[in-house]
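User:
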Amino acid sequence: EETLTLSFSEIVDLGTFDPSKITLQSLSSQEAGIQAVALSLLSTTVVTASNSETILLELSTNLFSEIKLASNLGSRKTSTFITFPATMVKDRAPVPNSVTAILASEAQQAAVFIPDYNRPLLTSWAMNMSTNQITFTLSEPMDVETINFAEVTIMTDSEELASTISVPLINTESSAVLSQSLTEMVVQLATADANAIKSQPPLCVASKTCYLKHSQLFGFDKSTFTDEGNIVRTRPLEFDPLEGTFSPDVYPPYLEAFSIDMNFGVIDLGFSEPVKFLELDGSGLFFTETQSIESLERVFMSSNSFSNESTLAAIQLLLTTQDLNAIKAKDIMGS
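Assistant: Predicted structure:
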């Protein structure tokens, strides 16, 4: 656990102690570029049980993450300072004396600083198949510059079975970290990776068929340093695949582009996402020689035209001779 230890010159009255008066800051004075994080009653737990010269505080996960996100604060001894007013605590004298305040303009540096050696944990994750986003819930913030999406695999099962469908994320340059908060990191999947997942049902059509695994090479946490200046960077622990919270794809696919080969009677359709090509009904397609609705003259395809292949979001439609000739019968259409 992440802790903060306060050592006083004499025994203090624990009943008068208010941790919300404490602020940690990155510099000894209020200069340009200073970063600061204030403690609160909710973000700290007083571990010390009785009056003492020392008070031990346990920091909450959110407070620890807030410090980690402030890249210049708490990364080493020389970037860890404390300030508090005289109202923070009193001693045990018959007429209690307030502690000597430490002003933000003359903050006190940590006497001892222990870097973060704990490895981050992926505690949960959520897949949104409509937005093609994954939300990672972590025990602490990660260094987004070190995230390697190629170390993530989406699976249909919690273990590798003969029937397991696995899709590794391979288009790493197109995937991106959209945001990182105290404990969450939102990733936008590359369109190719999202389409690869959608083209492999039953992969991620429900929570029970949507699992994620990652290797220890997934990334690093935010760095801290020893007193000697040695960097401490830790990789996440690798766990068995985790079942994710699942949001289904509720957005209908749409046609992005098409091309037609009048020699061989082949139409290539490019959709926004993978579609079930075996269920394509050619009779639902028609061609016109103008975009104007007023002068719309349509040539419908017959139900005999069929699709013979599908590569992710691309479908190839083979026209019957009847359909191809119907298009050619128009002087402009298909030319």
